[in-house]
Amino acid sequence: MSVPSGSAPVEVRLADRLTIHRAKTGTTSLLVDVLRRLGSCDRAGYRSVAGLSTPLLDAPLRWVSDFANHSKPWFLYAGCLALRGGRRGRRGALTGLAALGAASLVVNRPMKSAGARARPDWDALRVPPRRRVRMPSSTSFPSGHSASAAAFAVAVGDLLPTHRRPLLAAASVVAFSRVYTGVHYPSDVLVGAAVGALLGRSASRTVRRLGVLDADQL
Q1: CA spacing 20 to 30 A to 11: which of 89, 117, 137, 141?
Q2: CA gap 177, 145 in Å, rounded
Q3: CATH number, residue 174
Q4: How many CB atoms lie under 10 A from the CB of residue 150?
Q5: What angle do the packed helices 86-106 and 72-84 form, to 10 degrees?
């Protein structure tokens, strides 16, 4: 069954472009086959999550997915750190928010525009109606929620190690909720989280390199 180009996985649309180029040049490409396999795995992963029989998770993960809109958990967490964490907490909070802002800027502007991927089709991919949240109007690839969550978790966790595990756990739940509620494909979430993690690590390393946090404060 053919898939409309706008809703096809990014890997499939890239493979289509390479196939056209291959036909013009008469060459073959292993990359095309790899990309098509990745696209198939992406949709299969989405269907697998949609097919989970876990009704007890529906309401909690719907709430998590909605609550994560506009990065509310991370702003609240940063506020608590700033109020109760002393100097280290304030600097950790500011670093986390800087990483979050960078992730939002990179993912929600150029990357989403370049990916131009339509959101998943709930009905075609059989997402149970009881799980669904409001479908965002933005393009699907990559996930801005996952990028922001990973950026904040990694940046703060690097500077405040005691916060690393709870933040990474919370970021993972947010990322999974986006697939579970049907608004993202798995690759959207994985790429978003990877980009966010890289930006979070860059933010924490920049703070260390500039000496914003002295060695005896780490």
Answers
A1: 137
A2: 10
A3: 1.10.606.20
A4: 31
A5: 160
